[in-house]
Amino acid sequence: MSRIVPVILSGGSGTRLWPLSREHYPKQLLALSGDLTMLQETAMRLDGTAQQAPALVVCNEEHRFLVAEQLRQIDRMPHDILLEPFGRNTAPALTFAALAITAREPNAVLLVMPADHVIRDQAAFHAVVQKGRVEALAGRLVTFGIVPTQPETGYGYIRKGTMLASAGGYEIDRFVEKPDAATARAYLDSGEYLWNSGIFMMTAERWLEEIRRFRPDIADACVTAWKAGKRDMDFFRIDKEAFARCPGESIDYAVMEKTDNAVVIPLDAGWSDIGAWSSLWEVSQRDADGNVLQGDVMAFHTHNALLIAQHRFVAAVGLEDVIVVETADAVLVAHKNHAQEVKTVVAELKKRKRTEHLMHRRVYRPWGHYEGIDVGERFQVKRITVNPGAALSLQMHHHRAEHWIIVKGTARVTRDDEVSILVENQSTYIPIGTKHRLENPGKTPLEMIEVQSGGYLGEDDIVRFEDRYNRDSQS
Predict the structure, then answer these.
(1) Closest CA to 201 of 312, 320, 112
(2) Cα(35)–Cα(44) distance, integer angstroms
(3) Which of 252, 281, 391, 446 could form a disulfide with 306 if both were Cys (CB 3.0 to 4.6 A apart)?
(4) 426: buried, middle or exposed (CB in 10 Å: 19+, 13-18, 0-12)?
(5) Looking at 248, 272, 296, which one is the last position of a domain?
(6) By residue range, what is the domain housing residue 308?
C-alpha cells in the first residue's frame, strides 16, 4: 500500500514576524499559536491517519540541529533531514525530497507542507488529504485551495475549472497573482476562486516526471547535487557546488502552472500562513476587548491589539488596532494595517549592517546556547549553557582571551595539554592562542559566565580543530 510521506519545507525566514522571527531562528521554529512550535505542529499534522510514514524535512543547513532537536522533543524520528546550503525556492526542495523518497518507497505519495502554517481543524484536513491521495494515486498533481473568508490581497489565487467526477475537487482554470483590493473583492464575490495554500500532493515519481518535462535544467542540477551529496550524522548534505548551479523556482511556476494534470481540492480547515502579525491576531484567542495578550502584559482601554512581552513587563493604555512585540534586544510597535511593512524594518537593518535581523540575544548551538549580557569597548560578557553530555569544539582564538566562571553544574576544561574539572564557583582563564574546549560530563545543564577581552570579539574569530557536530573548521 502506498504510504503518505509528509514533506516539510522549512526554509523560510519570516521577515514579517520580526523581531520574534529572525534569520537564524525563523518563525517555523517558534511557538506562535500554542505550546508547540509551528514545525512541531506540522510534523504532527497527520497524527491519527492511516498510511502515514515519518516526515521528511528539507531545511537550511544553519537550522539543522534546531530542527532535529524540535523533532526529538515530540518523539518524531524523521524519514530524513535534507540540508540545503542556501535557498533555491520550493521546486528544487521538492525535487530533492522526491529523489530521497523514491530510493526507499517508489510508490509513496508526497504531502508537501510548508513548516510555518497553522491548521486548526485537523479532522477536516485529514478528510481532504484522503481525497487528495485518491487523485495523486491516479497520476494527478494536487494542490489544496483555501476557501476564502475575505478579499485578501496578500495571497495568490486559483480559479476553479471543471468539477472532477471524484474527490470533490476541480481542474485548475488558472493561477493568478496577488490581486489589488478591488480584484480580490471580485474574486471573493464570484465564488470561483480559492487562495493558493502552497500545500501539494502527488507521488514522488509523478513529480520527477513533470519537473523533468517542464524544467529539465532544475531536474538535472538536482540529480547532480543529490548524487554528489553525502551523509552527515543524522542529515543528508546536498552538494554545495553542484547546487549553486540549480535555478531557483517555485513549485507553482516550475510545474503546476504548466501541467495539464493539476487539480485543486478546496480546504476549509482554519488555515493560516501567519504571514504577518495581523494574521497571528486573527487566528489567536482574544479577550473581551479583542486583545491577544502573551507574556507579562496589562492592557487598559485598549482594543483589538496584539501585545507580546518576552522579557519585560509591557503596559498598554488607550490603544486601538496596534501590535507591540517586545524581545530582549528589540521592540516593535506598529498599526495592524501596516503589518506587512515590518519587512521594511528588516531590510533597513540589513542595509545598516546591524545584526538584529539575524539572531536573538540568545543564540542556539548544537551543544546548548549562549546569551549576551553586556558588551563594551574591548570586552563582552555571555551566559553559556551546555547540555548534559555535550561539548564545544576544540578551538582557538587569535584576538581574544576568555575568563570562565562556573555557576552551576560540572565542567571539563581543556587548555592545550591540561584537562581539569571545575565545579560551581570555580574559574579558569583562556589566554589568546590557547587551544581549549568546554564539556559537560554531568547529567544536568552546565551554566557558565564567560568574560571575553581583546581587540576583536566577533564570532568569526574561531578556529576549530575538532568538532563532534562536523561544523566548518573556520567559524
Answers:
(1) 112
(2) 13
(3) 281
(4) middle
(5) 272
(6) 277-346
Q: Which tens digits make up the pLDDT trace of 45-102?
A: 999 887 788 999 999 999 999 999 999 999 999 999 999 998 899 999 999 999 999 9
Closest by Cα among 85, 69, 99 to 7:
99
**pLDDT the model gives residue 264:** 97
Q: How confident is the model at residue 2 (pLDDT cuts 50, 70, 90)?
A: confident
Sequence-distant (6+) residues with CB within 8 A of 67 are 10, 29, 39, 57, 59, 81
What's the whole-number mean pLDDT along residues 247-271?
Answer: 95
Pair type for strands 230-232 and 235-237: antiparallel
Determine the Cα–Cα distance for residues 135 and 129; give it in Å rounded to an integer: 10
User: How many residues comprise the chain?
Assistant: 475
Q: Any idea which residue has 546548548 for its cell?
A: 368
In a domain, 355, yes or no: no
User: Whole-model pTM?
Assistant: 0.91
Q: Alpha-carbon torsion 66, 14, 473, 352, what sign?
A: negative
What sign does the CA torsion over 91, 97, 102, 103 have? positive
For residues 371 and 303, membership in a common domain is answered with no
311 and 394, same structural domain?
Answer: no
In the listed set 213, 243, 272, which residue is the last one of a domain according to the structure? 272
Same domain assignment for residues 204 and 311? no
